[in-house]
Each structure stands twice: as structure tokens, then as C-alpha cells.
Design goal:
elongated, SMI1/KNR4-like, single chain, five-stranded antiparallel β-sheet, 2 domains, alpha+beta, 7 helices, 258 residues
């Protein structure tokens, strides 16, 4: 068995430094030894990138991404340490944009409009990433977006109204209550296929779990984790979601500003 440090246990900058020194870093998915890009690196030289030798889908990061991660850490420094920790695993896999858009506004006003407080991790995500898509497929709804299809408050109302109408008009039942009922579903993200990612609003916001409903279907799958942990697990390949395409996320682990 390979002996070394797992790539998900160190920062991106530290991984680059250790590989440049000839130290062993292990893939977080298959535990193969991470290799440098290019493979031959002069001792002390920082490689251009790091990858899993078995599959770039497991692990791939370029040196440019390291600087973006540092920029992200600087941007979220005003957030509580707990919120910053929520974001760290995801930012190692999906690099935040250097210049996020629609990433600031009044959270108290948003929470007043929704009628509930929101988890700290989604606030950290919006601050660091703003509006955009993950792997050109998955979009976290942003309460500060001026575009109705991206706006958290507007989409929450529309998606919940749709579920209620499906129940009234067509008898389609949802296995969960709907927000604002206790434990009710509240939309937080959507895919290009029309799948909806919900919070299950049971307990305090920091205790909310994730539920995914497939597009145009009755399947609901629950994940015992918060939003950013779910995103990091999906993008790293540690878990799969039944509603998402079998090949997702593939080799594209980018965040595209929109």
C-alpha cells in the first residue's frame, strides 16, 4: 500500500511544494501516487500541475488554480472560521473564479424575504464563487443575481409552486413536506437537465441536509451532508447522485462565471 499524504488533507499550495520536493502525495479517490505535470521536475522546482496517473477525473489541478484558491481564502477571510472550513474541500477540486460576479449583497434582507436564516456554507460559496455553473451543468442559486433563473428567492418560490401544482392538478406526491413547513424542501441549486437540489430544512440551518429530485420524475435522493460537502463529494467522485448523468463530472471540474 502506498504510504504518503492524501491530497485532500493538504492545501493545493502545500501539495505543489511537497511534490516538487519529491514527497509522496496520494490521489483522494484511488490512492495512487500523484504525479507532476510534466513528470520530470528538477528538485525544488514547482510543477505546472498535478494529476492522478490513473485518471484526471480523480484528481487534476493546475498551478494557476493554486493562486485562485489563495485569492478565495483572502476573500472569505471576513467569514467565520467554520464557514471557511466548509469551503476549503470544494475549492481544492473546483477552483473559484478570480473575479466572481453578483457575489455580495444583504444576507439579512435575503433571509427576511425567504422567512428563514440560511446556512453559513452557502454564504461562503456565494461570496467566493458568485453566479456561475459547475462543470457547465450544476448551478447554485444566488440570492444576489438580477437574473430570475439564477435568483435563489425567485426560484425557491417558482419551484415550490410547481411542486404544489403538480400535487393539486396531477396527484403527484412529494415524500417530503415543502418549505415553510418544518423539515420542508427549499431549492438551493439546479442542473441543466432540470434536476433540483433542495435543502431539507429540518432543525437549525447548519443541520440542513441535501435532497435531489430528478427532472420530470418522482425520484428523491437524500444525502446526509450540507451543500458544500455534497458539492465536494460529487465533484471528487466520492459519491454519485442517481439524478445526475453517469459520466458526471467527467474531466471538466471548472466553475464558469455566467
Amino acid at each position: 500500500m502506498n504510504q504518503g499524504i492524501h491530497a485532500d488533507q493538504v492545501s493545493v499550495e502545500e501539495a505543489f511544494r511537497l511534490v516538487g520536493e519529491g514527497r509522496s502525495i496520494l490521489c483522494p479517490v484511488c490512492r495512487a501516487q500523484i504525479i507532476a505535470i510534466p513528470e520530470v521536475v528538477t528538485p525544488g522546482e514547482v510543477p505546472l500541475g498535478l494529476q492522478c496517473p490513473r485518471s484526471q477525473r480523480h484528481f487534476l489541478v493546475l498551478r494557476e488554480a493554486a493562486s485562485r484558491v489563495q485569492q478565495t481564502r483572502n476573500r472569505i477571510s471576513a467569514f467565520p472560521n467554520q464557514a471557511a472550513r466548509y469551503l476549503a474541500p470544494l475549492s481544492r477540486i473546483v477552483s473559484p473564479p478570480a473575479a466572481p460576479v453578483e457575489n455580495a449583497g444583504s444576507w439579512p434582507q435575503v433571509e427576511s424575504d425567504l422567512g428563514t436564516a440560511l446556512p453559513a456554507d452557502v454564504k461562503a460559496f456565494i461570496h467566493a464563487y458568485g453566479s456561475g455553473t459547475i462543470s457547465n451543468f450544476l448551478t447554485v442559486l444566488n440570492p444576489f443575481s438580477i437574473r430570475p433563473t439564477l435568483n435563489l428567492v425567485q426560484q425557491a418560490r417558482e419551484q415550490l409552486d410547481t411542486l404544489r401544482e403538480l400535487g393539486r392538478e396531477f396527484g403527484e406526491s412529494c415524500p417530503y413536506p415543502l418549505f415553510p413547513a418544518e423539515g420542508g424542501l427549499l431549492p438551493v441549486a439546479m442542473t441543466d437537465n432540470g434536476d433540483v437540489v433542495y435543502w431539507r430544512t429540518q432543525g437549525k440551518p447548519e443541520q440542513w441536509l441535501i435532497v435531489v429530485n430528478e427532472a420530470r420524475g418522482p425520484d428523491y435522493e437524500e444525502f446526509q451532508m450540507n451543500l458544500t460537502t455534497f458539492l465536494a463529494a460529487i465533484m471528487s467522485g466520492r459519491i454519485r447522485c442517481r439524478a445526475f448523468p453517469r459520466g458526471f463530472p467527467g474531466s471538466d471540474r471548472s466553475f464558469s462565471v455566467i
